[in-house]
Amino acid sequence: MAAMKALMAAEGTTHERRRRSHLVKFVAVVTERGGDVNAPSLADVCAYLSDFFERNGSANSLDKVLSFLRSGYARAGLPWLSYAEAETLKRIMKIWKEEHGKEVEQGVPITSRVLARWLRALPHTTADPTLLTAILRVGHAGLLRAGELCRRERQSDPGYQVSDVRWAPDYRSFELHIGITKCNREQGGDTILIADSAAVRAMYDYFLRASLFDSPTKPLYPPQVTTRWIRERIRELAAACGEDPRCYSTHGLRAGAATDLVDGGVSYPHLKKAGRWNSDACLIYFRSGVSVARAVARLLSDARARTHKPQEGQVSRHSNTAPQSGRKTATQARRVKIA
Question: Model's pTM, two decimal places?
């Protein structure tokens, strides 16, 4: 009993709450299967991960979920999988990722052009247009991950508070405290600056309509706004515009903003900084074949220009300062006749 209490113990951070949530669900799955909660088997872990994989339609978060389970058992002092079982699980997860990777790569980035087209279809959705515009605009401008859009996977999660939005004195930008993120596990988490005029205007209009400027302790978004709710609204907008909703997800806002930055010629270091990537994982967001082709063409053009550029001490054949021979040219002869 003491071990189970330690297993379910969690601190107040978002990371710890997610860990506890997965542990509670995992214990329920193992119990339902008739397994030993204090010493789960490889089959128990695979059953839980497989169920998570099917429910979310993505294998991208399997490593994170597994780390929640493994760290929870380690903190509680309970046995986890053996080395051989852990190696087998790695191979199984690799297969899942490879099989699902084809679908992930086909996800369509929600670029500025796509977002503008969707926002014109807002009257055809079941959501509050002002609220949804603010979420989509801020998500795109901030290159937010799916879990960072509202910081609420289910209605029981606290989500963002109004105090997480800190306005500039002139209200032309604001800071959004997104908390502990994938690449920043520090206690303070991440805070990003939103200065895009369309995103700032959308959030400002939402604050006015919802009367949030004088309510710092209120939730930023209504309780129904979860990650799943946003994904449903995104697919609803895609369908309203005659597009296949299965091609879009909440992560498309981040991919679309990255694609826009690449199209705009942003440097790779700036892209990493904007998206808060610690590794080279942002390379997967270079999805636009047109932008890549333009970048390649520009680099090749620069290379040709450097090749044909006269070296120091050399004179270009088109230069007006080329040395003259003793014989007059045809132009000089004509000038003599005219004189």
Answer: 0.59
